[in-house]
Amino acid sequence: MSRVAILISGGGSNMVALAQSMTGEHPARPCLVLSNVPGAGGLAKAADMGIATATVDHKQFGKDREAFEGALIDAIDAHQPDFLALAGFMRILTPKFINHYAGRMLNIHPSLLPKYKGLHTHQRAIDAGDAEAGCSVHEVTAELDGGPILGQAKVPVNAGDTWEDLAARVLPMEHQLYPAVLRRFVQGDRSPVFLP
C-alpha cells in the first residue's frame, strides 16, 4: 500500500477529494496533510478524517527558502510517503526540493496547461476570450506548472462569466480529475486522463 503526503495552504477541498478517494481497494492511503499556513482550514478537515497533520510556517523562515524547505522535507519524510500531492500548496518550490521527490510528486493547476501558468488563471482565460477553461494535473518539475500533463478536465466559459463563476464550475472537475490521476500515478501508469 503506497503512502501519500498531501500539501495544502488553505481550505483543502482537493485534499478532501483525494483522501476520500483513497479507501477500499485504492492502492494508496493518505499518511500526512501538511500546510505552510498555521490554522489552514484543511488541517482540521484532515484531523477529522483521522489523517496525521503538520505545519511548517514559511513566514518563520523569512526569505530563507532553503531552511524552509529543509524543515518541510524533515516533516514530510518523518511520515515516509511514497508520493506527494500538492493540493493548493501556494509556495514555489526550489529544484532541490523537487529533486528530492523527483518522479513522485503531482500538482493540480486551475487552467488548461500550458495556458496560464501561475496565478489568476480564470480571469486570464476570460480576458483572452477562451471558449473553454478547466484544470490540469501534472508531474512536478523544476519548471513552474511545466511538468508532463497527466490529466485535464474542461468546462465551457459562458458569456458574462466572472472569474468566480468560472472557478466554481472548474472546482468540481478538479475533485474528479485529481483522484483519477493519482490512482493511476501510484500504480505507475503515466497515461493521461481526460474528462469532458
UniProtKB/TrEMBL annotation:
<keyword id="KW-0808">Transferase</keyword>
<dbReference type="Pfam" id="PF00551">
    <property type="entry name" value="Formyl_trans_N"/>
</dbReference>
<keyword id="KW-0658">Purine biosynthesis</keyword>
<dbReference type="InterPro" id="IPR004607">
    <property type="entry name" value="GART"/>
</dbReference>
<dbReference type="GO" id="GO:0004644">
    <property type="term" value="F:phosphoribosylglycinamide formyltransferase activity"/>
</dbReference>
<feature type="binding site">
    <location>
        <begin position="90"/>
        <end position="93"/>
    </location>
    <ligand>
        <name>(6R)-10-formyltetrahydrofolate</name>
    </ligand>
</feature>
<protein>
    <recommendedName>
        <fullName>Phosphoribosylglycinamide formyltransferase</fullName>
        <ecNumber>2.1.2.2</ecNumber>
    </recommendedName>
</protein>
<feature type="domain" description="Formyl transferase N-terminal">
    <location>
        <begin position="3"/>
        <end position="182"/>
    </location>
</feature>
<comment type="similarity">
    <text>Belongs to the GART family.</text>
</comment>
<dbReference type="GO" id="GO:0005829">
    <property type="term" value="C:cytosol"/>
</dbReference>
<dbReference type="InterPro" id="IPR001555">
    <property type="entry name" value="GART_AS"/>
</dbReference>
<feature type="binding site">
    <location>
        <begin position="12"/>
        <end position="14"/>
    </location>
    <ligand>
        <name>N(1)-(5-phospho-beta-D-ribosyl)glycinamide</name>
    </ligand>
</feature>
<feature type="binding site">
    <location>
        <position position="65"/>
    </location>
    <ligand>
        <name>(6R)-10-formyltetrahydrofolate</name>
    </ligand>
</feature>
<feature type="active site" description="Proton donor">
    <location>
        <position position="109"/>
    </location>
</feature>
<dbReference type="InterPro" id="IPR036477">
    <property type="entry name" value="Formyl_transf_N_sf"/>
</dbReference>
<comment type="function">
    <text>Catalyzes the transfer of a formyl group from 10-formyltetrahydrofolate to 5-phospho-ribosyl-glycinamide (GAR), producing 5-phospho-ribosyl-N-formylglycinamide (FGAR) and tetrahydrofolate.</text>
</comment>
<feature type="binding site">
    <location>
        <position position="107"/>
    </location>
    <ligand>
        <name>(6R)-10-formyltetrahydrofolate</name>
    </ligand>
</feature>
<dbReference type="InterPro" id="IPR002376">
    <property type="entry name" value="Formyl_transf_N"/>
</dbReference>
<feature type="site" description="Raises pKa of active site His">
    <location>
        <position position="145"/>
    </location>
</feature>
<comment type="pathway">
    <text>Purine metabolism; IMP biosynthesis via de novo pathway; N(2)-formyl-N(1)-(5-phospho-D-ribosyl)glycinamide from N(1)-(5-phospho-D-ribosyl)glycinamide (10-formyl THF route): step 1/1.</text>
</comment>
<dbReference type="GO" id="GO:0006189">
    <property type="term" value="P:'de novo' IMP biosynthetic process"/>
</dbReference>
